[in-house]
Structure formats: C-alpha cells, structure tokens
Amino acid sequence: MRIVIDVTPLSHPRTGIGNYMLGMLGGLAEAAEGSHELVLFAPTGPRNMRRLWNALDGIRGTRRLFVVPPPSNVWRKLWSSKQRVPVELLAGKLDVFHFSDWMYPPQRGGLRTTTVHDLIPLHHPEWVDPRTAELHVPKYRHSAETCDLMFANSEFTADDVAQTLGFPRERVVVAHPGIHARFTPDGPKRDLGGPYVFTAATLEPRKNLETLLAAFTRLRRERPDLQLVIAGPAGWQGKAVEGDGVRALGYVEDDELPALYRGAEAVVYPSLYEGFGIPIVEAMASGTPVVASSHPSLDEASADIAVRADPKSPEALAASIERAIAERETRVPRGLEHAARFTWRACGEAMLRGYESARG
C-alpha cells in the first residue's frame, strides 16, 4: 500500500496531539517497513517548514512537503471547505489517505481515514479556544460523513465517536499511544531543593489546576516543605497558578520530563476530560506513583494502579496524593508493568491492521 499521512500539525510546537502523531509515525514506519510505502505529506508556510523537517528527522518515509504562501492555515481551510482539488495532485497516487485535524482535502480514490483524539470541542466548547472549535467541529462532522475508517486513541474515545457522531463502532479502530524510551525509572532525578508533587499540563481550564492548587494548599499545612511543580505552556484562558510553594516551569522540552517525573513524590493529573491521558502512563514508566482524575476518559491510562480522585474535590485530591505517596512501594512496580504495554510499534501495527482490514 501507498499510505499518505498529513503531518501538517508537526510544523508547530508539539503538545499532546503532536507527540502522538510523531510517535505514531515512527511506529507505523517500523511496522510497514519492507511491505508498504509511507508518504509524509504537508503544505505549510515557509517559517514552519524547518520545524517540520526537524520533527520528521529519523522517520522513514517519502517526503512530500510543500511551502505555501502565508497564512498557510487559510489555504488549508479553503482546501477543506471547497473540496475541489484532490490531494493526489500533490501527494501522488495513493491507497490510503489519513488526514489530520488541520485539513481534510478531497481524494480521488483509496481508503479515507483520520484519527480522533477526543470530542471535547463538541461536548465542552466552553473549555476550548473558539478557533479550536471552529477547526475541529467541522472536521468531526466531515469525518463521520466521508471516512471509510476512523482511529481513536482509546476505547473511551472510540465509543464516544460512535455514539456522538453516529459512526459505526466496528469501523473505529483503537490505536493506543506509546511511551517513548526516555521514560524509564533509571536515570537522573530533578533536584528542586526539596520534595515536590508534579503535574505536566497546559495552563487551561480543562486541566483543572485551580482544584489542584486548593488541594496542595491543604497538604502544605502538614508538609510545609512540599512544593507543587507545574510544567506546561500557557493555554486558552489559562490563569497563572501562584501560591506558596508553587513553582511554574513553563514549557519544558521532552528530554527534561523524565527527570521531573522521577524526582517527584507523586505525579498528579486532575484533568476534567481527556482523550487518553498520556502523562499518567509516562509517569508510571518513570517509576513514580500517580494520582488521576476519576473521569472515565482516564480509565485506560490509569487502570487500577493510579489513585483516583474526584477532580472537583480539593479534599479528595489531597487525600489521594497522600495515599499515593504512602503506597509508593506497592504501586510503582505495578505501574511499570502497566506502562510497558504501551508501545509505538503496537500503535503502528494497530493502524496497519485497520488499513488492511478496511481495504479487504
């Protein structure tokens, strides 16, 4: 098969979805090697082309990367809305076209597919930038109407796609995310001058950091030496998290995260809603106990290993952090075993099986 994948999101700084795409590409290239051709396709502006090439360094596949006049997002939006110029004119003949969240141009033939990471803009538009909803919601509707196959990053999201978009559940394939090899319990631990609990999250309402701060304030009454360390860039309507013992690191490079996970007393992920919740599994792979929101979207990442807490209750969250720290010796080995299940090779193999099955 000649599999064309839109990699345009990698032309911008990566967060969760970009990291998923990059890992998925590596796993798919590995699974397809020697049997199928992977074509990495993107139209983007001149300023972002260098970042795109750098992101794809080491990924095996044919490059079909095109510079378009800025603003490139306008061109992608027009290409999606007008549905006139088939993608084959730029990408060449294809057997599979896997489009991204950023555009959904038409195609002449072959399998049409995409990945849905979550339906948060549909369920909770108040949690996302209106521009994000404007980009994603039409994509969801278009996907449900035109795709032969869709992928999801969790069983939760796959069920949501079927129920919310009315897409046949048997045509939604789950391709769980993998864990990068950098996340292991072996290696340096970040020294921040004292014990700390850690969270990795974009500063935005859905990540629920205000409740975490309230929980942390309760913990500080008994443990005044404890710090709350937050790694993540500012997001839409995200408020700075400030208080005694709080240290906000801002955006942290991927290579710095393992040491932060390893050095923490516990990792806390109080999000109100996710597609999967990859930081939970990254923390487990790094040998650190985890506290996670009890929202069902985090069930697959958490299994029965993370300590769960009502994300709207500071009291419950504080108690769960204390419990995770106290039960470190029993929870860490089980977390390591759970995290080992999630590999990018397995993600790529799931996608390849999906393509092959849908093509008959």
Which features would summarize this protein structure in a list?
Rossmann fold, 2 domains, 14 helices, alpha/beta, six-stranded parallel beta sheet
Describe the protein in words.
The protein has 360 residues and is of the alpha/beta class. It has two domains: 2-178 and 343-359, Rossmann fold; 196-339, Rossmann fold (3-Layer(aba) Sandwich), CATH 3.40.50. It is built from 14 helices and 13 strands. The strands form two sheets. The protein has a seven-stranded parallel β-sheet with strand order 3-2-1-4-5-6-7, with helices on both faces. Strands 10-9-8-11-12-13 form a six-stranded parallel β-sheet, with helices on both faces. Helix 10 (278-285) crosses helix 13. The longest helix is centred in the N-terminal third of the chain and has 17 residues, at 16-32. The model has no long low-confidence stretch (mean pLDDT 94).
Quick summary of this structure?
This protein is an alpha/beta fold. Helices cover 41% and strands 17% of the residues.
Output the number of helix runs. Answer: 14
User: What order do the strands of the largest sheet run in, or round the barrel if closed?
Assistant: 3-2-1-4-5-6-7
* Strand proportion: 15-25%
Tell me the radius of gyration.
21 Å
Distance between the termini: 12 Å
Number of strands: 13
Helix content: 40-55%
CATH topology of the largest domain: Rossmann fold
Q: What string gives the helices and strands in order?
A: EHEHEHHEEHHEHEEHEEHEHEHEHHH
Flag low-confidence runs. Answer: none
CATH class of the largest domain: Alpha Beta
Helix and strand content put the structural class at alpha/beta
CATH superfamily of the largest domain: Glycogen Phosphorylase B
